[in-house]
Design a protein that fits this description.
alpha+beta; Peptide Deformylase; 6 helices; 9 strands; 27% helix; globular; EC 3.5.1.88; hydrolase; peptide deformylase activity; Peptide_deformylase; iron
Length: 193
C-alpha cells in the first residue's frame, strides 16, 4: 500500500525516533509498504518518520542510482560503491570518515527544494536488518550519503539543517508553502495545517 509522505512542518520530522523490537505490530507489512511508497515517489530512501511513524527504521535503494548512470565513466567517480538495497532498523552511526564532499540533495518531505549538502565520504553504521540480525557495515560515496540522509530523519534532522543560516532564511517562504500545502507533487502527501 502506498502511504502518504509527511510534509515539512509536521512535528514527527523533528523527533528523535524510538527503537523497536521484533514484536513491533505489522512490521513486515510496514516495510513492504515503505518500499512501495518509496518507489512510487521516485525516492532512493525513505525513513519511518516520513510516513508519520517515529521509529528507528529506514529503507535505502541506491542500486537504482547506479543502474540509471549512462556511462562507466560516471560510475568510476564512486569507487567501491555499487549501491545497496537494505532495511535499517535501530541504526546508529559509529564513524564518519573520508573527505567531506558536496552533492545536490532533495527530500520527499521537502519537495521542489534541492541544495548542495556536504557530508562525509564514508559511514560505518551498526543496525539490525528486517530479521533483527545485527550488522556493522561501512558504506562510501552516494550510498553513504543516502544512508546519512535517512539516518538524519530518525535523529529528527532534515537535510536543510546542514545549510548555512542565511541559506535557510532564503528558503523560508518555500518551506512555509510546503508546510501549508501550497505545493503540488505527483505522489501522496500529508500536510499538517
Amino acid at each position: 500500500m502506498i502511504l502518504p509522505i509527511v510534509a515539512y512542518g509536521n512535528p514527527v520530522l523533528r523527533k528523535v525516533a524510538e527503537e523497536i523490537g521484533p514484536d513491533y505490530p505489522g512490521l513486515k507489512e510496514l516495510i513492504a509498504n515503505m518500499w512501495e511508497t518509496m518507489y512510487a515517489s521516485n525516492g532512493v530512501g525513505l525513513a519511518a518518520p516520513q510516513i508519520n511513524k517515529s521509529i528507528r527504521l529506514f529503507v535505502v535503494d541506491s542500486v537504482q542510482i547506479f543502474e540509471a548512470m549512462e556511462d562507466e565513466e560516471e560510475k568510476q567517480e564512486y569507487p567501491g560503491d555499487e549501491g545497496a538495497k537494505k532495511v535499517f532498523i535501530n541504526a546508529y552511526v559509529k564513524e564518519l570518515n573520508g573527505k567531506p564532499w558536496a552533492y545536490n540533495e532533495g527530500c520527499l518531505s521537502i519537495p521542489k527544494i534541492r541544495e548542495d549538502i556536504t557530508r562525509a565520504e564514508s559511514v560505518t553504521i551498526e543496525y539490525e536488518d528486517e530479521n533483527f540480525q545485527t550488522h556493522t557495515d561501512t558504506y562510501t560515496g552516494i550510498t553513504a550519503r543516502v544512508i546519512l540522509h535517512e539516518y538524519d530523519h530518525i535523529e529528527g534532522k532534515l537535510f536543510i539543517d546542514h545549510l548555512p543560516a542565511l541559506k535557510r532564511q532564503l528558503l523560508k517562504r518555500k518551506l512555509n508553502d510546503i508546510s501549508s500545502g501550497k505545493i503540488k507533487v505527483d505522489y501522496k502527501m500529508s500536510f499538517s495545517r
